[in-house]
Amino acid sequence: MEEIPFARPCLSEEEVAAVTEVLLSGWITTGRETKAFEKEFSRYIGEGIAVAVSSGTAALFLALFLAEIGPGDEVIVPPLTFTATANVVEHRGATVRFADVDLETGLLDPAAARAAHTERTRALITVPLHGRAAFLEEYASFAREKNLFHLTDCAHAIETRVNGRHPVSQADMAAFSFYATKNLTTGEGGMLVVKDQDLAAKASIAALHGMDRDAYRRYEADGTPFYDVLLPGYKFNLTNIAAALGRKQLALLPKHLRRREEIWRRYNEAFADLPVTLPPEPPPGDIHARHIYALRAENRAERDRLLAELRRRGIGTAVHFRPVHLFSYYRKKYGYSAGDFPNAEAIGDTTFSLPMTPYLTDADVERVTEALRAAFGK
């Protein structure tokens, strides 16, 4: 029987046609499609100005660059996240200060973040894990009180809303990922959302070698081949090819979210009587992006058994996440060890994720639920 992959992207003929049109246009790098994607994404988020980049990691790095975070600075980061959230702090020459997460939600614990603060702390990175946001007012209050730059890593949280607004409403900037497994994919790509036009302009310049004109502006009919270099920038631009795919994916987000919600509901109903912890739900009225459906087993050995059983039955799975402080680099550099962040470790030891994509058919969903129930002898 064919394996059900963990995160196959949901693509249609519309996306194929849009990408084909760009390929045949003669202009495949950054151009009009990219600029249109930025404007449409800004409207969807409803906050700030969007700058398209080559990855979510590039967006995170660019945000810290714009905030002038560097050597001597400390940045508070939750350990229960993808490693890029912490890695970009290292790339900037700053110091990672991990703070434990809330055991129920897996989100950065506001009290732990406050406890991690020192006189060298300059920034706070929060993560709406799996697509759910909480503690936004607590984070914002802490950042204002301590004069911290607040970046929210929204790799899982394009659709997420709290009290009708996106989490970036309570932060200085937000970074988004369009990696192949994300709710909106461009294969590889990302977006940075900032709060004012000057920062957006600087971000666009920094994302393309520090040049004051990109190639499209130089070679269009009324352009000029000359440009200036305003700073030693990076190569973070997003192509027209990726942007065309992203624009179609963006338009389909509401439809795809409805399907994700339906799959989520069916999973919850099927697993309600199993000895696992279901994902926590957001308060009524808030929107969960439903990016990752993560269950928790009773212990690590049981989690690992379930992963093996599901794999044997042809069901793709993942773990979101192994706490970053336990990776070799962070252990060696900072001296972290097991027990330092018990909540993150408790989740990391027991969590496992099931396929959650609009690509799944009803038959696929039934196979997934039957496989997990069978692993428990149900």
Summarize the structure.
It contains 13 helices and nine strands. The protein has 378 residues and is α/β, with parallel strands linked by helices.
By CATH, the topology of the largest domain is: Aspartate Aminotransferase, domain 2
Fraction in helix: 40-55%
Q: Beta-sheet strand percentage?
A: 5-15%
CATH architecture descriptor text of the largest domain? 3-Layer(aba) Sandwich
The CATH class of the largest domain, by name, is Alpha Beta
H/E element order: HHEHEHEHEHEEEHHHEHHHEH
Largest sheet: 7 strands, mixed
Please report the total strand number as a whole number.
Answer: 9
CATH superfamily heading of the largest domain: Type I PLP-dependent aspartate aminotransferase-like (Major domain)
Main structural class: alpha/beta
What's the rounded overall pLDDT mean? 96
Radius of gyration: 21 Å
Number of helices: 13
Main attributes of the structure:
single chain, about 375 residues, alpha/beta, Aspartate Aminotransferase, domain 2, Aspartate Aminotransferase, domain 1, 2 domains, seven-stranded mixed β-sheet, two-stranded antiparallel ribbon, 13 helices, 9 strands, globular
Question: Can you walk me through this structure?
Answer:
This protein is an alpha/beta fold and 378 residues long. The protein has two domains: 235 residues, Type I PLP-dependent aspartate aminotransferase-like (Major domain) (Aspartate Aminotransferase, domain 2), CATH 3.40.640.10; 124 residues, Aspartate Aminotransferase, domain 1. It has a seven-stranded mixed beta sheet with strand order 1-7-6-5-4-2-3, sandwiched between helices. A two-stranded antiparallel sheet has the order 8-9. Helix 1 runs antiparallel to helix 9. The chain is globular, with a radius of gyration of 21 Å. The relative contact order is 0.17. The mean pLDDT is 96.
